[in-house]
Amino acid sequence: METNQFAAAEELPKAKSRVKEFIKKFMKRRTAVVAFVFIVFMIVMALAAPYIVPYDASQADYSNILSGPGKAHIWGTDEYGRDIFSRLMVGSRTSLFSALTATIIGTIGGVLLGLVAGFFGGLLDSLIMRFCDVMFAFPDILLAIAVVAIIGPGMINVMIAVAVFTVPSFARITRSATLAVKQELYIEVARSLGCRNGRLLFVHVLPGTIPSMIVNFTMRIGTAILAASSLSFLGFGANVTEPDWGAMLSQGRNYLNTAPHIVLFPGILILLTVLAFNLLGDGLRDTLDPKMN
Amino acid sequence: MAETLLEVKNLRTEFKRDKSWVTAVNNVSFTINRGEVLGLVGESGCGKSVTSLSVMRLLDPRNSRISEGQVQINGKDLLRQNKKAMCKIRGHEIAMIFQEPMNSLNPCMRIERQLTEAVLLHSKVSKEEASRRAYDVLKAVGIPEPKMTLKSYPHQLSGGMCQRVMIAMAMSCEPELLIADEPTTALDVTIQAQILELMESIREQKNTGILMITHDLGVVAEMCHRVVVMYAGRIVEEKPVKELFECPQHPYTQGLIESVPKLGSNMTSLPSIPGSVPDLAVMPKGCKFAPRCRYAMDICREQEPELEATDHTGTRRCRCHLLHTGRQEVNQHE
Amino acid sequence: MGRYCAKRLLSTIPLLLVISFLIFMFIHLIPGDPARLVAGKEATKADVEVVREQLGLDRPLLTQYGEYMKGLVTGDLGLSIRNGKTVADTILPRLGPTILLTVSSAMWAIMIGIAIGVLAAVFHGKAPDYLGMVIAIVGISVPGFWLGLQLIQLFSVSLGWLPTAGLDNWQSYVLPSLTMGSGVMAIMARFTRSSMLETMRADYVRTARAKGLIESLVVMRHGFKNSLIEIVTVAGLQIGGLLSGSVMVETVFSIPGLGRLLVDSINMRDYKVVQALLLFFALEYILINLIVDLLYGVINPKVRYD
Q: Would residue C203 be called left, alpha or beta, if left means φ above 0 and alpha means ψ between -120 and 50 degrees?
C-alpha cells in the first residue's frame, strides 16, 4: 500500500460559511425570529414615523381630550387631545435611538477597557478592574440617578447616564473573553509570525470576543430602554412636551382613574420592545452556545 | 461453571437528532457469566457506553429510546421493569462505575454521606450500621485512612482515591454485576494497574461478573476473559481474549491490534486505520467498515454481513464476508 | 477559608474609601456653581454666600474632606437645606418603610422565583418550562413603574380591593412589593433554571441515579442542593440591588421612604441629603455583596476546606 500516508481516506466536507450556518440555526428559533422582525419594524417606524403617522404628534385637539381607543384614534388621545398612537411612534425615535446610542457608546468604552485590561494585564488591568468595581458598587439605576443628579436632567444626560452604567459590565465580559482568547493557539501563531500588539489586539483578539458581546449588547439595549424610560418617568429625562415613552407615562399618571389608556399603551409598547430585545438576546445566546447543538 | 448472569438480546437503542431517530446500538447481543470479565471494545462513538447505559436504563428518555431487545438478569427483563423496580435493581444487583471519578462524586457531599446513601437505599439498617459498612468497604478497597477519607470531600482526594471510592460505593451493596465504563482512562498508568488489580481481587472474592468497557487493548489483555468488539453500533467480533490477540478475524480488530506499538518489533511507522468512524445518521450501505477496510470487496459495499458463529460454542462470532471466501491473509497477522 | 475571607475583607476597605471620596466629590463635580444652583436664580450675591457657607464650600478642599470623614464617623452628616433638620433626622424616619418594603418584596420574589426555576428545569422542554420562562422573561422586560400603575388601576381603582398609596396597613404592602419584586423573581427563575439544568447534566447526578436513587431525590439532594450555592449567591446580590429599586416603587405608590426622598432631594438640590443617601445605598450594596461572598466561602466546600 504505497499511497500517500498523510492523505485522508475520504474527502473532507467543504467548510460552509460560518455566517450562513449561524443564520440557519437562528431561523429555527421562532420566538427569536419574531422578536427580530418586531425590532426591525420598530426601527423602521422610528425612522419613518413623522411621515407616516395619522396625526401630528404635537397637535392638540381640545374637543377630543382623554378619549379612549376608538376608530378615529386607535389608541385614544391624551389630556391635550393629541393622538397617543402617533405620539408613541414618533416618541420611539427618542426612546429607541437614545437607548441604542447610549448602549453603543457604553459598549465601545467598555470593550476598549476590557480589551486593554485583558490583553496587557498587570497594573493596567488592576486599575481598570478597580475602576469597574467602583462602578459596580452602585446598582444600575442608582448610578444613573447619581449621574443625572450631577449633570442635570435632559435626554442627552440620560443617555450619558445609561452609557456610564453600561461600561463596567462590558469591560468585565470583554476582559474575560480576551483572557480566554489570548490563550488560544492562533494568537501565538500570529505573534510568532511577527504581528505587533495593536494589530494582534484588533484583528485577532477582538473577533474572538464577539460572540459573548453580541448577546450582552442585545440584552443591554433592553436595559437601556427601561432605564431611560424610568429616568424620564422620574422627571429627569425628556422635556414633558416631547413625545417620550417614559414622560408620557408619567403624565398619564394623573388620569389613571378617568383615562387609563394613557398609561396602558406607552407601557405596553415599552414592554413589547424590551421583551423583543430580551427574546432576541436569548435566541442569539442559544444559537451561539456550542453546548446546544 | 459458566453460569449465565446477564443476557443481552437484540438490543437496539436510538437517539433523537433533529426530529428523526438515529440508531446508536444496533442488534447487540452478548452474555456475561458469573465471575467472568467481558471486555467491550471499540473506538469512541462505537456505541459501547450507550450499550451499558441502555442496560442500566440511565439514558435520558427525552431524546433516546430503547426500541428493541431484552436484557435478562436473575429472571427479569430490565427493559420491562417500571421505574421503582429499576431503582431497586440499580446499585443492588447491577452497579456501575464511570470514567471520570473526580466528576462522578458529588463535590458538595462528604464521602461518608455518599457511601451511606448507597447502603441505606438497598438495606434496612441504621445510620450507624451504614457508616460502619462504609468504613469497612473503604478499607476493603485499600484506602489507607478510611476514617479521614469518610470525612473528606471529593476534591480533597486524588483521582485514584476517587475511583477506589467509586468502586467501594459500587460494591457496598454486593452487586452481582459490575459495569465499568472506561474506569482507568482518566488515571495515571501506575494507578491504572492498582485499580485493575483491585477489580480483579473483588471479582475473585465475590464472584462478580464485570462488563469492562474500554478502548485500551492493554486493559483488555490484562483483565478480560472474553472480548466483544463493536463498530458503528454493531458487534463485529467476539472471541476469548487470547484468541482475539492471536488470530483476530475481523479486519477492524486486526487494525486495532496492529495500531498498538509493541516493544521489540522492527516497525518504522505506526500503522493506523485510515478514515474515521461514520456519522450515525449517514451510514454507508452494506458493511459499515467497508470504506476503511483494506480487504473490501464488492459484496461488502452492497450487503451488510451477518454476525455469524465461527464455531459451535456460540462464544466465537464474526461479522465479515471474508469468512466465506477462505482467504488465508485474514486469519493471520504479523 | 481564612485566607479567602481575609482577602475579601481587605479588598473592601479601599473600595469603601474610594466610594466615600467619590460621593464627597459629588458636589464639586456639578457643573457650575453649586451654591448658586442651590440658592436659586433670584438669589442675591449675599444669599449665595450664605448658602456657600452652609454647604461648607467656602473652606479649602482638604478641610472639607476632613470634616466630611469626621462627620461620617460621628454621624453628623450636615443639615438639610430643605427643612433645616439634620440629615440624619431627615433620613432615619424614612428608613423603616423602605426596609420593610424591601424585605417583603425580597422574600416572596426569591422563593417564588426559585420554585419556578426548579420546576422549569425538572420539566425541561415541557409545559411548566415554557410557562415559567414566559413569566420570567416578561418579568425582566416589564417597566416597574408601569406595572405598579397598572396594578393600582386594576386592584385599587377598578376592584377596590387594595389601597392606592401609603403604608398604613399590611394590605398596602401587597401591590408595592409585588411591583418591586417582579424583576427579582424573574431573574431568580431564569438563573435557578439554568443552574439546575447545568447541575443535572453533571456526572455525579448520573452516579446518584446509578446507585438506585429515585428521581425526585436525585433532583433535590444532588441537583438542587448543589445549585443552591450559586442560587444563594445570586439571591443575595439581588437583595442588595433591591433597596435602590425602591426609588421607582415609592414614587409610584407615594410611599414616604428613602427612594422618594432621593428623588425629591435631587429636584430640590438638597445636596447633603443626596450625598448621604447615595452613600447609604452604595454602602449597603457593598456590604451585602461582602456578606454574600463570605457566605459563599462558608457554604462551598471547595473554598471552606482549602
A: alpha
pLDDT at C303 over 50: yes
CB contact under 8 A, A9 and B294: no
* pLDDT tens column, A237-270: 767 677 888 888 888 888 888 888 888 999 999 9
Q: Do residues B256 and B245 make contact, with C-beta atoms less than 8 angstroms apart?
A: no
Q: Is the pLDDT of residue C80 over 70?
A: yes
Spell out the domains of chain A, with CATH numbers in brackets. 22-55+75-288 (1.10.3720.10)
Pairing mode, strands B37-41 and B209-214 = parallel
Q: Which of residues 10-49 of A touch B (CB under 8 A)?
A: 10
pTM: 0.85
Which residue's entry shows cell 398609561? A263
B201 near B189, Cβ under 8 Å? no
> Rg for chain A (alpha carbons), in Å?
24
pLDDT at B118 over 80: yes
- Is residue B327 one of the residues assigned to a domain? no
The total number of structural domains in chain B stands at 2
B145: buried, middle or exposed (CB in 10 Å: 19+, 13-18, 0-12)? Answer: exposed
Q: Distance (Å, rounded) from C-alpha A93 to C-alpha A90?
A: 6
pLDDT of B300 over the 90 cut:
no
| Beta-carbon count within 10 A of A2 CB | 4
3-class secondary-structure state, position C227: helix
In a domain, residue B77? The reply is yes
Using CA atoms, how far apart are residues B125 and B121, in angstroms rounded to an integer? 10
Segments forming the whole domain that contains residue B229: 4-93+175-261+270-278
**B16 DSSP 8-state letter:** E
Strand order in the sheet with B4-17: B20-33, B4-17, B64-73, B76-77
At B197, which CATH number? Answer: 3.40.50.300
The helix/strand/coil state of B236 is strand
**Residues from chain C contacting residue B117 (CB–CB below 8 Å):** 208, 211, 213, 221
Which tens digit of pLDDT belongs to each residue from A49-58? 888 877 777 7
Confidence label for C276 from pLDDT (cuts 50, 70 and 90) = confident
Query: Is residue B65 one of the residues assigned to a domain?
Result: yes
B111 and B240 share one domain = no
Domain endpoint, select from B174, B195, B228: B174
Contact C210 B58 (CB under 8 A): yes
Q: Which three cell numbers stand for residue B192?
A: 491504572
Closest to A245 measured CA to CA, from A261, A260, A265, A275: A265
Please tell me if residue A5 touches chain B, with a CB cutoff of 8 Å: yes
User: Does residue B155 share a domain with residue B195?
Assistant: no
